[in-house]
Amino acid sequence: MSMRLRAITLLLIILGSTAAAVTPAVAEAEKTVSFASAEDSYVSQAGPGKTHHTVTWLSVCTTPCDGAAASERGAFVRFDVKDVPANAVNVTMTLDVQSVRTTDTTLEVRPVKGEWTADTLTFDNRPALGEVITTHKGLTAGGTVKLDVSSAFTGSGTYDFALTSPSGAHGVLHSSRATSGQGPKLTIGYDTEAATPAPGGPLPFAMPSTATLRASERKVFAHYFTPYPISLNNRAGADDYYTKHYLTPTGESNKHIAYGGLLRDRPIPRGVLSGDWQLADMKQEIETAVEAGLDGFTVDVLSLTSAHWDRLNTLIKAADAVDPGFKIVLMPDMTSLKTDAATLAAAMAKLATAKSVYRLPDRRLVISPFKAEGQSAAWWTNFMKIMKDTHGITVAFVPVFLNFPSNAAAFAPISYGFSNWGNRSPAGQSGIASNIAKAHELKKIWMQPVSVQDERPNQGIYDEANNTENLRVTWEKSISGGADWIQLTTWNDFSEGTQFAPSVHNGGAYMDISSYYLTWWKTGKAPAITRDTLYLTHRTQFAAARPTSGTQTKFMLPRSGTNTPRDTVEVLSFLTRAATVKASIGGVEKTYAGQAGLQAKTFPLAYGANKASVGAVTVTSPWQVKKDFTVQDLQYHAVSSGRK
């Protein structure tokens, strides 16, 4: 067996061992805690500078209210939630409000995104609001309305809600200062679950349950690219299309010979499957993503016909079958779709009938086109009008721009949120905070791209990612900047070398690191490290080196503006306590003082093998750093001590 096939077999064993390691949790009896509002008040457009923090009622009304124009009213309420344990599962959270009178008011509950205090809150300084969590129609005098806000639960902490109304009469509710009746109350019900034992999986922390992660308003999607599913022709790895045609310079009749082959990495190979193997592969990808904590895929819609359209439909079918709670976000690719608005609308409406295709709680369909500026804001306005008038679908538009600053103003009136495709190097991440702030200033959500690296042999360019630094920086700036959604760019675009999905050269390491950060982001605190874990990343050749043999004539150069290329081995450690870490870099032994928590330590790249250890935990890279090679490859390879 060749060295390459041995490595592939090793990674198959690494990935295959994780599924059986999970120990079922034991649930305890259901518990309930309730909280009266800590602060509440309302705002009135009719008195835009007036506060209402001393009155015994809360007003909710659309404009015109009580026959007066410019008279919108909305209520704000805050709860300080405590003593909900970190291992709470099956969480329900209910907001109770009691009506003063009978009206046909429709109530909407929204999360509050900005700062406020009851004694200073006015219509003019009211904070921005998030998407609708739940609605209720009709109020009865003395009756209590129970509003399900479970999707907003993130654990103990402060919860700010706004009560607004899109229709109906003026609704009046008891405030916390009411002399009769009940003020706002928040009730949380939950079970408790034993944490997954730390040695039972590949992660350095105890992963929360899927239900707990999905209860967060913050969403994490991964960009799915239909050209590169797990298998292209249902052959064994040594004989499949990836090996024969994409990884080989002479593949596809020498089409890729100048740049040494189309790809440098690939999905984990598998054996031949019987039955509907394409559906089975898609189910496997969804199961992998769910286990990693993802909320869904943003799927690049490259075509409305052909194999790409078929794979998109198969992916949706797989999500419906495996877990309809795993959402598919429709992302028309405006670099490849050359169609009119009516045709695109008809295709999107057809897909939107599936349970797993993502809609907001208010049933708006999320459409998030890649390179949205490929068509004008007027073109997209017409598209959304067709969706509404012809297909009865209201769109929540979240354009992904290649140039956000140049397009934000024009697209703001028609957009629910914004995103950009982003950069793949630490040097390009300085604008994350300002992009998020700009979106929030325009009262839009922001979907932040988080990435590993980028290398494109056929285009002759690559980004310097500095081992895992780019991945960590994009996550950390997303957390500190207050991003609303995340898009991992990408799940499986192997032609750009940006894959998070388990692959031959990363084995699932980048996905595992992201699981740590997404848990941090969704729960509001960095997960406690419960298991010493090491991640080792390095290239297999020096950045400036060229093949010593072979047929490659076109080489990758650093993208303009990227970090200066560097040649390093990185040990990324997650340690339960401070300890001495040992590393062997090209056969030369090193030691350093490992810190408790997360720490990155780099060493100069050297020819030979690399490994690291802390106590009994060891990680050994199966990838040798070589002086002689036939194809330029500037991606970082990764391996985890947790996946054995």
- The portion of residues forming beta strands comes to 25-35%
Rounded to an integer in angstroms, the radius of gyration calculated over CA atoms is 26 Å
The shape is: globular
- Helix and strand content put the structural class at alpha/beta
Q: Kindly state the number of beta strands.
A: 31
Query: What fraction, in percent, of the residue positions are helical?
Result: 10-25%
Outline the biggest β-sheet.
7 strands, parallel
Number of helical stretches of at least 4 residues? 12
The end-to-end span amounts to 21 Å
Mean pLDDT: 92
**Low-pLDDT sequence parts:** 1-28, 195-199
* Strand order in the sheet with the most strands: 14-13-12-22-19-18-17
Quaternary arrangement of the chains shown?
A: single chain
Secondary structure layout:
Blueprint lengths: L2 H14 L14 E6 L2 E6 L12 E4 L12 E9 L6 E11 L4 E9 L22 E6 L4 E5 L8 E8 L6 E4 L10 E8 L17 H5 L4 E6 L16 H6 L4 H4 L22 H15 L4 E6 L4 H17 L4 E6 L8 H11 L13 E3 L9 H15 L3 E3 L2 E2 L2 H8 L5 E4 L11 H10 L3 E6 L3 E3 L4 E3 L5 H13 L3 E4 L20 H15 L9 E6 L18 E2 L9 E8 L3 E7 L2 E7 L2 E8 L5 E5 L2 E4 L16 E4 L4
Parallel strand pairs: 12-13, 12-22, 13-14, 15-16, 17-18, 18-19, 19-22, 21-24
Antiparallel strand pairs: 1-11, 2-4, 3-10, 4-9, 5-8, 5-11, 6-7, 6-9, 20-21, 23-25, 23-31, 25-28, 26-27, 26-29, 29-30
How would you describe what is shown here?
The chain is globular, with a radius of gyration of 26 Å. Helices cover 21% and strands 27% of the residues. It is of the alpha/beta class and 644 residues long. Helix 11 packs parallel to helix 12. A 7-stranded parallel β-sheet has the order 14-13-12-22-19-18-17. Strands 2-4-9-6-7 form a 5-stranded antiparallel β-sheet, with no helix packed on it. Strands 1-11-5-8 form a 4-stranded antiparallel β-sheet, with no helix packed on it.
